[in-house]
Amino acid sequence: MSTPNHSAETASRPAVPEGLVIAVDGTSGSGKSSTSRGAAQRLGLRYLDTGAQFRAVTWAMLQAGVDVHDGPAVAARSAELMVVSGTDPAGPTITVDGQDVSGPIRTDEVNAAVSPVSAVPEVRAHLLALQRSIVADLLAAGHGVVVEGRDIGSVVLPDAPVKLYLSADPSARATRRSAEEGGSDLAATEQSLLARDAIDSGRATAPLVMADGAVHIDTTGFTLEEVIAQVVALAEAVEAHA
Ligand code: DC
User: Fold this and answer.
1) How confident is the model at residue 181 (pLDDT cuts 50, 70, 90)?
2) Spans of all domains in the chain
3) Protein residue with its CA nearest to atom 15 in ligand 1
């Protein structure tokens, strides 16, 4: 049964197929997270932040004193972790073994350690299975979802009907990320983003690539609202051709 509020929300919501999956990949600071959350809210979809999952595993390694450059040790510890993602785009959550880590996963320590942890094949295999099972459960419950990361369109969900690849100029990315982090040093932020990109794009397992069939949006010259509008239009185009 729908309430008046729910009807109004549904009436203003763009028409998209039930169970739509949108895969969003791109570099750090390209606007992926804000765009993915905003588009999910506009389209009435759930939202899965896979970067937060890699960050959560990394946080747990640091907490346990595991050397993040020791692949076998990282693999062994990651197998024991229970990572749970909440997929409400208005308030996504992330816990590790029941502990809320949404704040601690955004620190400089995690920024510096997340790329080597993400390069460990066993960590990727573990999170790949988790990501696919979350999406399968959402679809079974009648929800669609926007999933953001680095290998979503290429590896995790290659059959997603909408695939996006977001990029932006390094200085624009650093400015956005610095603002998100409450005004961190611009030059240091840009260096940290570029260092992570180099590792994320150069690793052997599931490197950051533009997936086959992905639509490339360079967000440098656009506002967040303008990028979200482009994503909504692409989702509506899928409905038009369904
Ligand atoms: O999107 P983010 O900055 O929160 O991602 C943090 C790190 O996680 C990023 O440096 C690369 C890694 N990552 C990944 O390897 N694969 C994904 N699907 C998502 C993130």
Assistant:
1) confident
2) 21-235
3) 118
Q: What tokens appear for 65 in the block?
A: 């004193």
Q: Which residues line ligand 1 (CB under 6 A)?
A: 28, 50-51, 54-55, 114-115, 118, 149-152, 196, 200
Which pTM does this prediction carry?
0.90
CATH architecture of the region 21-235: 3-Layer(aba) Sandwich (3.40)
Q: State the Cα–Cα distance between residues 179 and 174, nearest whole angstrom.
A: 8
Query: Residue 103: what residue type?
Result: G
Asked if pLDDT for residue 1 goes beyond 70, the answer is no
**Protein residue with least CA distance to atom 13, ligand 1:** 51
* CA 50 to centroid of ligand 1, rounded, Å: 7
What is the DSSP track for 170-204?
A: HHHHHHHHHHHTTS--HHHHHHHHHHHHHHHHH-S
Chain centroid, CA 238 distance in Å: 21
Element (H, E) at 148: strand 145-149
> Tokens 């051709």 belong to which residue?
241
99-100 and 93-96: which strand pairing? antiparallel
